[in-house]
Amino acid sequence: MGDGSEDRVIDVAIADKSPIVQAGLRALFEGDDRFRVVAVAADGERFIAAIDRLSFDIGVIGWEMPYMSGAGVLQALRGRADAPRIVIYTGTQDADVPRQAMALGAAGFCHKGDPPQRLIEAVIYISRGGMSFPYVDVRLLELNPLAGLTEREREILAALSQGMTNQQLAAAFEISLNTVKFHLKNLYGKLGVDNRSQAVAKYLGRKHR
Exposed end of the chain (fewer CB within 10 Å): N or C? Predict the structure, then answer.
């Protein structure tokens, strides 16, 4: 006799930068009585806020999102006992992203070009304790040190590689010097470096791989 887990409604939360994708995913899951959509967010920070407020089984989130990327969400959820299982749903053509997502603790990966049924099946399988990824050569499993950066942090890092000073960064991004220093502190922490020269070296090393 089964334990009834296959009949249990799966609570899902969605996060994607595109309102069209948000609406499409909501319609996909709400059109299937095996699911209940409990939250929809436009970025990673709002998705984390939803986890703080709500309890749900699966998060279906984008990889490239403002304020906090999919990688940033996965990093933020590490060690959280209340964390939902995460499916990365993205249109990126970067073949390394599934490996990065797996290394950061995602439970699944689905490309936006896949049939919708593929995502439905992945979420059901993951809700039962499985993992769902395209082929990943685990011998090459390696974290991209830039994966957890926000879009603004990536822009600042690229500007650093061009030799811009703090004052020039403040002028270019129309932010205060204190805000520049705040971004740099976060940037160095995420990259595991102590200064801008080390950050630039890591950036250029990854860029030229």
Answer: N
Beta carbons of 62 and 37 less than 8 angstroms apart: no
- Domains located in the chain, CATH noted: 5-140 (3.40.50.2300), 151-207 (1.10.10.10)
Residue range 27-80, pLDDT digits in tens: 999 999 999 999 999 999 999 999 999 999 999 999 999 888 898 899 889 888
The Cα-based distances of 37 to 23, 34, 60, 183 in angstroms read 11, 10, 10, 34
* Residues 148, 72 contacting (CB under 8 angstroms): yes
pTM for this model (two decimals)? 0.67
- Encoded tokens for 81: 């006992």
How is the beta sheet containing 85-90 ordered, strand by strand?
Answer: 35-41, 10-15, 58-61, 85-90, 108-111
